[in-house]
Each structure stands twice: as C-alpha cells, then as structure tokens.
Amino acid sequence: MAGDEFPETVSEGVPTTNASPPAEPYAVEEPAPRELTQEEKLEQAMKVPCPITKFKGKTLGEVLQLDPGAIKWVAEKFPATEKVGAAAQFIRDFALQQSA
C-alpha cells in the first residue's frame, strides 16, 4: 500500500539537518552625512527653545521677531558649548553677516 515505507509517527516541525551556521551579516556602509547649509543651520537654531523666563514656550526664532536684543543677551550669557548659546550666537552672527 502507498506510504508503507514511511514510519507511522511523524515528528512535528521541519526536519533538522547539520547545516552550516548562518553567514556573517553583511555590513552596509552609511554615506557620510552631508554638511548643512547656512540656511539649514539657521533654521535649526531658530527652533531651539528660549531659556528666558519672559519668553517661556517660545523658540529663539519667535523671540528674534519679538525682541532681537534678547537673542544678543542669550548669545553673550550662555556659552557656545551649550546648545542654546551656540544657537543664539549663530543667529546673531548670521544676522550681522546679512546686515554687512
């Protein structure tokens, strides 16, 4: 009869073999990030939250429209090593370049 040569019990699942271990995953080289343009850097700087209590909840870009002197103050009071200081200094310097 057909199937007589097969064992009566069949184990569940896929039969295992002595296959070789999976190959090393291949490495994908990420392209080097491109340098941001001055305008893109300015756009990022304008989105940084303002640390001045009077302007709580506003970005440096919004504060620039309301009180440009506040940006100068932040640029002078916060070190460039802090994100807000670096952003304010970039905005100030960019504005000075544009007016020259």
TrEMBL record:
Q: Which residue windows does the record flag with biased composition (Basic and acidic residues)?
A: 31-43
Which segments show compositional bias classed as Low complexity?
19-30
Instruction: Using the UniProt annotation, give all residue ranges assigned to the region (Disordered).
Output: 1-43
Q: What name has this protein been given in UniProt?
A: Uncharacterized protein
